[in-house]
């Protein structure tokens, strides 16, 4: 089985033209594989089940390969060659945890690196660690997909209502920092390479909490914004009722806008935050725990977001 691999590499290592061409072809193959895998993972993705979270699953697979397959604990091991390529064979390999594990010719480094990488991927990148405090790095992917902070916010509001506080009073007691952690800009999938504009303009540095908006349609049904999972970098603004039925959205194209917030007649009331005293008729372009950067006067902000501004008692 090793003969074709050996023969091809002998050729390309001595022919720059072929070396370039096979790498171009390899790029195409990898792109096709990555694309098909992305579609597959999108089809099975479920943020409520860690087994179906790609980051978690890949970490577990990485650990299994290093701890079981490579070591021979439950698997064949890996191919280990002698210096002259005469007596190479598949054999179990013990992890090399010392400095020698960084030697590319020490097989044990393959086992130890896969085991360590599993903890980096499934552990620190997904669940966070002591060196990634959420105050500085924002919520972890696990926290965001679980709605960790949203649940705590609703728990506190429910506790306030149980103490006979009004909805406005209950939301006013929510710490701004807690609301900020559930702000869409803190979704770990946002930002990074594809974030446009300067940090102090528009979608940049958050300077205040506008409040928690409660959306309603013309029939008076309360609407909830569908949560954006960390699988995506962008996500449509879709409003659903308590049964999960789509009632409104912010359309990408006017030709398909029968659920647009304007046509459905979505209204909004704010509780807590800077806009607690206000409400809006249709035309709202906001989402829960909304923040705006460098906003001016509250009145002009209301006019910017709404067709009409009304006072909410």
UniProtKB/TrEMBL annotation:
GO aspect biological process, one term: photosynthetic electron transport chain
Compartments reported by the entry: Membrane
Keyword Membrane: yes
Highest taxon above the source species: Eukaryota
GO terms for cellular component: photosystem II; plastid
Keywords for this protein: Chlorophyll, Chromophore, Membrane, Photosynthesis, Photosystem II, Transmembrane, Transmembrane helix
Entry GO MF terms: chlorophyll binding
One Pfam family here: PSII
Official protein name in the record: Photosystem II CP47 reaction center protein
Species: Rhynchospora breviuscula
Membrane topology type: Multi-pass membrane protein
Transmembrane region(s): none
């Amino acid at each position: 089985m090793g003969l074709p691999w050996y023969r091809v590499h002998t050729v390309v290592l001595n022919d720059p033209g072929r070396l370039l061409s096979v790498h171009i072809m390899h790029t195409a193959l990898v792109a096709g594989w990555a694309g098909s895998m992305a579609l597959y993972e999108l089809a099975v993705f479920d943020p409520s089940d860690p087994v179906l979270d790609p980051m978690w699953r890949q970490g577990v697979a990485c650990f299994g390969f290093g701890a079981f397959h490579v070591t021979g604990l439950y698997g064949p091991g890996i191919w280990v060659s002698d210096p002259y390529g005469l007596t190479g064979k598949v054999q179990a390999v013990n992890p090399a945890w010392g400095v020698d594990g960084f030697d590319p010719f020490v097989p044990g480094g393959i086992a130890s690196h896969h085991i360590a990488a599993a903890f980096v991927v499934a552990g620190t990148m997904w669940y966070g660690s002591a060196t990634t405090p959420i105050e500085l790095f924002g919520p972890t992917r696990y926290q965001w997909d679980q709605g960790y902070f949203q649940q705590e916010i609703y728990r506190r509001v429910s506790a306030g209502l149980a103490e006979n506080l009004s909805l406005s009073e209950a939301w006013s007691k929510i710490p701004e920092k807690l609301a900020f952690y559930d702000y869409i800009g803190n979704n770990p999938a946002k930002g990074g390479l594809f974030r446009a504009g300067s940090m102090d303009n528009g979608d940049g540095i958050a300077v205040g909490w506008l409040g928690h908006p409660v959306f309603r349609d013309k029939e008076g049904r309360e609407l909830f914004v569908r949560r954006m999972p960390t699988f995506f970098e962008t996500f449509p603004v879709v409003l659903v009722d308590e049964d999960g039925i789509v009632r409104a959205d912010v359309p990408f194209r006017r030709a398909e806008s029968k659920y647009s917030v304007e046509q459905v007649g979505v209204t909004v009331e704010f509780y807590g935050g800077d806009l607690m005293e206000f409400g809006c008729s249709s035309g709202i372009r906001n989402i829960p725990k909304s923040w705006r950067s460098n906003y001016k006067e509250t009145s002009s902000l209301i006019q910017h977001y709404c067709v009409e501004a009304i006072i909410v008692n």
